[in-house]
Amino acid sequence: MPLAGNEFHMSLHLLSLVLQVAGITAVAWRKTDEILSLRTKWMHLIGERYDTGQGKEAVEYWRVIKPDSVIVIVLHEGHIILPAPSYRPGIGKPTVDFVGGRRRSCNGTSVRDDALALIKKELNVTAADARTLRVVNEGPRGYAIDSSFSSHRLWVAVCRLKEGVVLPSDCVRYRVSEVDVLLRDLECLQCRAALMELMLREPGLFKERRGWGGWMGRTAMTRHS
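Structure tokens predicted for Nudix hydrolase domain-containing protein (225 residues):
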């Protein structure tokens, strides 16, 4: 049986205590050499060598620093709304993904401002069309997305649109009660993590309510056809 939210966080805390008692601690690596530093408009490629402090040969570590990003989960009249599927060259096919993109931090914008700009860009709805918009992981640091070839921070926002808002005909709709179908179709790991985080924090969002008539036809999703 999956752990509830509090149980999960308590388990992580207990694991941390066990590792401390066992004397297992992380040692900071020391950079000994920079192999390459290449900056472009989209990313910063860095190659470095590190002394791990374990008496072993230096580790060669390559990483890519990218601008921070925002994922927006959009809700409208009993459905989760996603933009039309877009082609992903890396996997050679189109995928369904939440509204999302890079932050404009260099312009001094807030996460909320960036989320609204992305909704406008991908769904053609304005700030006036949003009934509520809030950041799930509010704070200055977001979540760390850190592997050798992706180093940035991610914020997750949820936006509930006003009833009657007109959406693009090619957008994808999943009923909130069929969130398991959406999870099955999502291939983007960050999108999956964002959705599961929201499900953990606010499971009540994914229960159908009255007043959403007209959208209660076919379950699962409606693709443009």
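The domain at 69-206+218-222 is CATH 3.90.79.10 (Nucleoside Triphosphate Pyrophosphohydrolase).
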